[in-house]
Amino acid sequence: MSNMFDANKIKKDFPILNDPKFNEGLVYLDNAATSQKPQQVINAVSDYYSHHNANVHRGIYELSERATNMYEDSRAKVAKFISAKHPEEIIFTKGVTESINRVAFCWVIQHVKAGDMIMAMESDHHSNLIPWQQVAERTGAKLEVLQVDEKGEISLEQIKQKFDELAGKIKIVAISHASNVLGTIFPVKEICKLAKEAGAVVSVDGAQAIPHMKVNVESLGCDFYSFSGHKMLAPTGIGVLWERKELLQEMIPYEYGGGMIGEVKTHTSTWGEIPQRFEAGTPNIEGAVGLSAAIDYLEGIGMENVRKHEIELTTYALEKLGEIEGLTILGPQEAEKRSGLVSFIIKKIHPHDIAAILSQKGIAVRSGQHCTMPLHDRLGISASVRASFYIYNTKEDVDKLIHELKEAKKLLS
Amino acid sequence: MNVMNKQDIQNDSLYREQLLEIYKNPSNRGSLASSSVKVTEKNAFCGDVVTLELEIENGVIKDVAFDGDACMVAIASSSLLTEEIKGKTVEEAGKITKEDLLEMLGVELTTSRVKCAILILEALQSALKQL
Predict the structure, then answer these.
(1) Longest CA–CA separation in chain A, Å
(2) How far apart are the first and last CA of chain A?
(3) Are A201 and A223 in contact (CB under 8 A)?
């Protein structure tokens, strides 16, 4: 449907966006926080509970096998969606925060020692910064941060320089694929190449990339890739950690209990196969089923069409926002360098007030620090407003945003 | 959710004329030449920052100033609270509760905005503790 992309048609699939009782006139522009869910995903979850619910990997009765198959089919679908070589490289988590914490505490902490370096990004979401602070604190390794330049980008020269300065010491590079505030898409492939040459592994936070563009973990060349389902049309509480199979063998379990064991004796136990070893307890089966339906939905549209639509919308938004006097856009000025979000500040008006006034007009945007305090400190601002787009947003949504921003400015200044 | 027009927004309790006026011309905004105590409070949730200074003489708040990078609710609330405590004893000021302050504002606030409103009260309470 490459020439048939129609956001208005897509919008019809999302009940919450067509809900005159609770959400009349809703313009939802907080997709970087969470996306809305299409009827197809809601139906998949409902269908699972109505017809197929049983615990997985347990019963030998037909219903349990069916539930197990649905859960494992989802794993295989996720693997294919991100071009992973093996389904068992997919570990289901509750979201990207858990995924990154697993990388930090089930692999990295066993592989770094005092004096080693962990390279992270100052501009990143706290979930891709605090785990690394903790690993550094507990191991005596040092945390080295990459900083964005005035355009909101990270130059490869800066990274090369760091690798040269700290030759042999950097053991892990923890980056995000796209910034949740600046929107910047970072050069992950090139960073992975540099890291590999320096003997470091790379963990990528894909939370803001995977809903918006085709991701191929093999061609990126990273070692760990994390993302959440709920930002890509799936339910909350389901996320993914992909890791290279060779590294999985060295990973220790995150939780201990049922479903993850080989053999249990009174005082000792052995662990089961990969990936069950990493999924103790009853997993989020409905979440996996919902994620599978979300992938079907996105693939029905085509990730390249999703990307194209968001570039169009972002280009339009950047142009229109740029016309508002006193408004400063954070991050790169070119839509091609961004995922589909735009953060900004307006001189002398606090982001909270902007978001509150927009809310009264039915427009949902985010205000605050978006879990990136160090980035806001670096930029010298206390907070910002973020409008983030997805497949059901239209130019009319952007027009409404622009119109109401101008009205808010009149009211408050 | 009801979509409001501009008139509705101005009539709506939160962005009504009185609060906007206070926000645009707040009392006691700035800093003191000399102060007995100075406290900065930050709302980690949204990034609002307010600084409160008190000049105390013989147990009485003789002068007060606040400043900060904050939203309308936090600024209006700071203006109202600083007006309220000026001239009061430390003991009287210490008795002001969250409910008292919300009553001074006289508007219905959502949970997230209550945090904005009471940031200045938190600053006052921590300032009084430091005396």
Answers:
(1) 71
(2) 46
(3) yes
Q: What do you get for the CA distance between the two ends of chain B, in Å?
A: 47
| Within a domain: B1 | no
Count H helices, E strands: chain A?
15, 15
Query: Is the CB of residue A383 less than 8 Å away from at least one CB of chain B?
Result: yes
DSSP A247-273: HHTTPPPSS-STTSEEEE-SS-EEE-S
State the 10-residue block means of pLDDT for chain A, 413 residues long. Answer: 80 96 94 98 98 91 95 98 97 98 97 96 94 97 94 92 91 97 96 95 98 98 98 98 94 93 94 94 97 98 98 98 97 96 95 92 93 89 94 98 95 87
Question: Which pTM does this prediction carry?
Answer: 0.91
- B114 at A interface, C-beta within 8 A: no
Assess: ipTM above 0.95.
no
pLDDT (tens digit per residue) in B17-53: 788 899 999 999 999 999 999 999 998 777 789 999 9
**CATH number of B30's domain:** 3.90.1010.10
Instruction: Give residue B55's Cα distance to chain centre.
Output: 17
Q: Do A24 and B1 touch (CB under 8 A)?
A: yes
Structural domain boundaries, residue B19: 6-129
Q: Which CATH architecture best describes the domain A7-30+302-412?
A: Alpha-Beta Complex (3.90)
Q: Is residue B20 part of a domain?
A: yes
* Residue corresponding to tokens 């891709």: A128
| Residue type (1 letter), A136 | A
Domain ranges of chain A: 7-30+302-412, 44-299
Active-site residue flag, B71: no
Residue B112 C-beta-side C-alpha neighbours within 13 Å: 13
Domain count, chain B: 1
- Cα angle: A85, vertex A89, A92; to 5 degrees: 135
How many angstroms separate the CA atoms of A398 and A142, rounded?
A: 43
**Short-list A364, A122, A371, CA closest to B47:** A371
Domain A44-299 classification at class level: alpha beta
More reliable by pLDDT, B111 or A17: A17
Instruction: Give yes or no for residue B6 having a pLDDT over 60.
Output: no
DSSP state of A235: P
Helix/strand/coil (H, E, C) string of A180-214?
CCCCEECCHHHHHHHHHHCCCEEEEECCCCCCCCC
Pick among A181, A346, A382 to test the B interface (most B CBs inside 10 A): A382
Q: Which of B2, B9, B47 sits opposite A383 (nearest CB)?
A: B47
3-state SS string for B37-80: EEEEEECCCCCCEEEEEEEEECCEEEEEEEEEECCHHHHHHHHH
